[in-house]
Specification:
Chain lengths: 425, 80
């Protein structure tokens, strides 16, 4: 996790520069107004699952405050030990990196509890930026972000492989629909929607079935929606990866970008990309969930809830729900597709993170930490008595599957799109 | 005539959805000696793109990647 190319001295210089640039007055105010009252403590799924001070949001903020004061406070520069006795700045940087990546999923639940609205997620995002720039970020997240860039840089090389793969998937769609006319168009100019899937077939085949039934004007893009540079808080790479998609949408002259069931990909395209560009996007951005809900409400998709009679619950992805405001759309589709729907408590805005968010599900060395942090979610699921858990985010899906194995929940985890296909009338 | 590739370690990624196969491959490769060959089988067609892209960005060598009906088999050599 430590880059050998960065010397200790270089790391400190980079860390100071990054922190100085990223901690603006808004963040500094957040750091200063936190009085460590502890009201946020119970809101954190890490603390609830393993109650210790390191798992409190205010402790995380305190580490950043300590580092900031060492670098920028005149007293901290002369007496750094006053802001963390017996701890070198290098140690503090390393501890901060691990905290930001392994002990906080940026779920933002603590902000709702804080009387001052301190945004710990924003503070941790800055910490992730510093960790990434100093070579302290998890290698796998860097590798996945770089692989996405490699796909774009070698697009011609990968194009034929991709088209072959899509041809195979198109046959699957035709088999499901019993129609040789069903299609998965790729890069088709003039299509109203550019649908951006993830790498896996589970985010292409069910959606293609539903688009064909709804007779949608759509096309698939070349690139996947996930953006691992967002988890690294590496603004330059994240913007680059996102631009692959906006360029495609411009090329096909799409009116809308539709993002697969993926939490961070949706919030990135919906909220972050316009900020990075400095102007609104020339097309609408929606989640596939919003589109499916529209199809059901407009009668373009007929679902039969009798097809799924098992107890079913929905896990709100923090990105789609708390950060994206998409609460009712998935529920309307699920209620149309399953006859025994049950809510977890709490849910919607106050839903607990599953523990796998913000890229943590990809970091194998911290699997135990995230599975322990997900204990609360496992208990919530158990209390519903549900046998099917629906979620609209692949990170959540991976995590809940593993939680099921770890906590013997005996559940099936699926997406809204897959459930909809199973309930086609 | 096709040459058979000899692997030093084999991992089963069948049933895993992307990017988890890449995550498992990355971890397995890091635990191998330089020059070692990893063989893997997967079922998610996403690996047909994800693995070559990961190999390109990490500088390892993809010796072969082939579809065998629903199964995808690939060999990667750790180069550094």
């Amino acid at each position: 996790m430590n880059s050998p190319t960065k010397t200790k001295q270089n790391k400190l210089i980079i860390a100071k520069e990054m922190l100085g640039n990223l901690v603006d007055r808004r963040v500094l105010t957040a750091l200063e107004v936190c009085v460590r009252c502890g009201i946020c403590t119970e809101s954190c799924h890490y603390y609830q699952s393993n109650p210790k001070i390191e798992h409190t949001p205010y402790y995380r903020a305190e580490l950043v405050r300590r580092l900031y004061r060492r670098f920028f406070d005149p007293v901290g520069r002369v007496f750094p030990q006053w802001f963390g006795a017996g701890e070198t700045t290098e140690d503090l940087l390393s501890k901060l990196a691990e905290t930001a990546f392994s002990s906080c999923t940026l779920c933002q639940r603590c902000t709702l509890a804080c009387p001052f609205g301190v945004e710990t997620a924003e503070i941790m995002r800055i910490t992730r930026s510093v960790a990434t720039a100093t070579g302290n970020a998890p290698d796998i997240l860097v590798e996945l972000a770089n692989a996405a860039i490699a796909k774009e840089e070698n697009a011609e090389l990968f194009r034929d492989i991709y088209l072959d793969q899509i041809k195979d998937l198109e046959k699957e769609v035709q088999d499901i629909l019993g129609s040789s006319k069903a299609r998965i168009p790729v890069g088709e100019k003039g299509a109203r929607m550019l649908y951006v899937p993830l790498a896996g077939a589970h985010t292409i085949v069910p959606q293609a079935v539903l688009f064909n039934i709804a007779q949608e004007s759509w096309t698939l893009g070349m690139f996947e929606a996930s953006n691992y540079a967002v988890f690294l808080a590496d603004g330059v790479k994240a913007k680059h990866i996102a631009e692959r998609i906006t360029k495609e949408a411009e090329q096909v002259k799409a009116k809308e970008i539709i993002i697969a069931e993926c939490g961070h990909a949706y919030t990135t395209m919906r909220w972050d990309v316009p900020k990075w560009r400095g102007s609104p996007l020339p097309f609408k951005v929606r989640s596939i969930i919003e589109v499916l809900d529209e199809y059901v409400r407009e009668g373009r998709l007929h679902l039969d809830s009798a097809q799924n009679s098992q107890p079913t619950t929905y896990h709100d992805s923090c990105n789609l729900g708390r950060k994206g405001g998409i609460f009712e759309e998935p529920r309307r589709v699920i209620r149309a597709a399953a006859s025994d729907y049950r809510e977890m408590t709490p849910n919607r805005l106050h839903s607990y993170c599953c523990g796998g968010g913000s890229g943590l599900v990809a970091v194998e060395e911290w699997a135990d930490i995230r599975l322990q942090a997900g204990k609360l979610k496992a208990e919530q699921i158990r209390q519903t008595g549900a046998k099917i858990v629906v979620t609209s985010c692949d990170n959540c899906r991976h995590q809940i599957k593993e939680l099921s194995e770890r906590h013997d929940l005996g559940i099936e985890v699926t997406s809204v799109s897959e459930l909809a296909v199973k309930s086609l009338a | 005539m096709t040459l058979e590739i000899k692997s030093d370690q084999t991992i089963n990624l069948e049933g895993l959805l992307c990017p988890i196969p890449v995550v498992k491959v990355s971890q397995a490769i890091k635990n191998m000696a330089v020059g070692g060959v990893l063989e893997a089988t997967a079922t998610d067609p996403g690996v047909l793109l994800d693995i070559p892209a990961w190999v390109k960005s990490t500088g390892n060598e993809l010796l072969s990647i082939k579809k065998e009906d629903k199964l995808i088999r690939f060999f990667i050599k750790r180069t550094k």
